[in-house]
Amino acid sequence: MAPRGRPRSFDRExxxxxxxxxxxxxxxxxxxxxxLLTAMGDIAPPSFYSAFGSKDRLxxxxxxxxxxxxxxxxxxxxxxxxxxxxxxxxxxxAAEQFCRGDGPRGCLIILGALNSTRGNQDAHDYLxxxxxxxxxxxxxxxxxxxxxxxxxxxxxVSEMASFYSTVVQGLAVRARDGASRQALTAVADAAMAAWxxxxxxxxxxxxxxxxxxxx
Amino acid sequence: MAPRGRPRSFDRExxxxxxxxxxxxxxxxxxxxxxLLTAMGDIAPPSFYSAFGSKDRLxxxxxxxxxxxxxxxxxxxxxxxxxxxxxxxxxxxAAEQFCRGDGPRGCLIILGALNSTRGNQDAHDYLxxxxxxxxxxxxxxxxxxxxxxxxxxxxxVSEMASFYSTVVQGLAVRARDGASRQALTAVADAAMAAWxxxxxxxxxxxxxxxxxxxx
DNA sequence: GTCTTTTTTTAGTGATGGCTATATAATGGT
DNA sequence: ACCATTATATAGCCATCACTAAAAAAAGAC
Lengths: 215, 215
What we know:
Two copies of one chain form a homodimer. By secondary structure, chain A is mainly alpha-helical.
């Protein structure tokens, strides 16, 4: 059953991929509609608005596409036999993905709209909400490691997740600045050096420890 | 000897400080001249251009001001008795500075122009060049630690500097996303857990190690 | 007081931003 | 053939962008 009216003359998915690359290279604010339309195959504004609604909705679709793709790689990396191996592979995957040859470097989710400007509030908030999932998924993997007993019980799971996700975000900045894949891999290895000291460091108790001189 | 013509009716330094805050909150691209002029005390465009030259030059001055201030705090933190203590204080200083109460969170140098757009090439490049100094100054401090013998000879100084500066950049992103000072401090502590394993890990030799199966 | 120098005030400029109104073309349904 | 439907092409909308021309105002020099 073909659609009813005049058929669309461009490939919507391909156009979305092209738009994603422009957003990746320029960020939400830096990507102009002209540049997007050109990259998407010189489609005209009305065709664009009919297919995607607005620059903001296009961005969300592009971010979803990027997040799905990248998230798949990250999830696969995390899914190693042990939590430690999973996090190590995650960091290495980030180092590699953020340096992939031809296109822009870094990460669309992390770098796409860090500043809140006049017209990017929705894009800004959306990316932030996606970034919040980073620590969550790492935390889940380490927690599974505790269940599987490849991570000692009492390890500071949340702090570790927060730390490693901070490293990933730092890697995105370094990659955007042109750091080599080797340099980022070395950073990943350095971050993993913290693993053993971290897992054997007990989680802080809820009650603050007694201070010698509370003042 | 007072200047020759009509005296300027606003405080240039105060105006620069205000502009710095706007750039900090919005980034280079997101800060509009209107917003800048309003924040600077409703000065008129010609007064602005006569005093600062252009939006780009203003940004560079604002970045310099921020860099000097922040750099002073960072340098002071690094200047602890040992390299380890210095880096630890540096990370904690970053965690605190990036969360300072009223203003925007994060770091102007790191977040101010990460995407390269149509009109921000100079600002983008300038911030990147400032960021390059991050690893350098950390590296210098750890190298001094080797001289002072509070860091073992053979420690992978460059990799450690690269790692810790990546953490600082990650902290800026987390801060911008609203992470609490405590959360960032915990990240700093986690990063410092890597110190002992790192310093006792020998620097990789220049020649690649022999592979068992070179293919 | 008049001249010179510098800043301010007022009112713009051209370029570009995201987006849209209108009319035309291409399909399926009957 | 004719209609309903959907997409296209053409041409522009208005707001905002960074920036500036022209003239009036405020200071020192003489």
